[in-house]
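A protein record in our archive is deliberately plain, so that people and models can read it alike. The tokens are whole numbers drawn from a learned vocabulary of local backbone shapes. For reference, a complete record is included directly beneath this paragraph.
>
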Amino acid sequence: MKDFGGSALGISEAAVMLQTIAESGACMNGASSVHMNIFGLEPVAKFGMAAQKERWLPPLIQGQERACFGVTEPNTGLDTLKLQSTARREGDYYIAKGYKVFISTAQMAQKILLLARTTPIEEVDKPSCRLSLFYTDLNRDAVQITYIPKMGRSAVDTNALFFEDWTIPAEDLVGGFNAEGDGFKMILHGINAERVLMAAEALGIGFAALRRVSQYAGERMVFNKPINTYQSIQHPLTECWIQLESARLVVYLAVRMYDEGYAGGEYANAAKFLASEAAFKTAERAIRTHGNIGYAKKYHIERYLRKATLSRIAPVSAEMIKNYIRLRRSILRGFHKQAVAEAVKAREIEEDVILALTGLRTDLSQKIKKIKNISGDFRNNVDKEMDATKKAVKNLQDNLGQAELDSSAPPQTSDRECHTRQASHVGTLYQAV
């Protein structure tokens, strides 16, 4: 979003930043105070019209406005497709009515990204249809905001929202009027970003806890030796490092896939599951390594455990992640089976083509061989005819040559004629004498 004053960086860079904030010791308090303005407006950045982006993004990027994420409801929870809040179109406005719960930063936010049903659920073919997404002013005259006290993450307020006859301008429908009903598809784009960023924050908590417990284990002396020299301390902490590093690799894979346009949620959810579990186990191991003092607030370990606990249940629980991935992988297996069946069929067709081509090649080879044989016989016959012609020509040339010789030789006389001529010649000579 460089055109609107942003840095043009992706969720990958945001994940590194939020992990660093959490790892500094700020944990969820520090990270949650900034992460909503990073992932929350992802649907707007992707699906909003140019005029909407121009109107909404610069104030958010410049820090002039803050937004909250209005999706979760008390009666539906993670079953977003059963969402009950409605927005009814009336001219140039929508009239919104419903409840939202666990809405962070609503006490100070100026804007809200609101998901509501624009067509009653009983009138749609699929529950995912006709859910619409709005980015609008959080009008406190129409929205009742109630603070929810909680055991941790006190730097960020959490709230319940109740609204009735809330007038929302139609121009605040993300994507414009033609995008009415596409809200669920849009919100998934923001939810996947939320999952991976929460995973990065959990990693930060885990590494913070591991660093602090490793330092303590090197300083704490028991039986005249640092406790980090005992395998009962070394091995569990080594396992924590292995789990955190494994989760980190999946988190970075998930954010890279997200930035490259992958729309599926299994990697984002898997990253969130692995990171939150690794962070919780590391924080728990840190308390156990500290012993009783770990339960006290002096070393901050109990705070890490509280923050890591939140990462296991929000924004989605480990059990729901497993349900989603099982369903997603089942669907993908179905696609895989279909692809395999199509590949097998294609292979069969290929084999048939190969057989046909082989038969054609054999038949063609036989015909070529036959043609060669015929050609050989024809050549032999031609050679014989040529030899015979050459002999006939030679005989003709010989006969013609002899005839020419005969025609050029002087005429031959007989013996009798010769004797007569000789006698006549002698008689002439005698008379002359």
In short: Confidence is low (pLDDT under 50) at residues 425-433. The longest helix spans residues 318-408. The two ends are 151 Å apart (CA to CA).
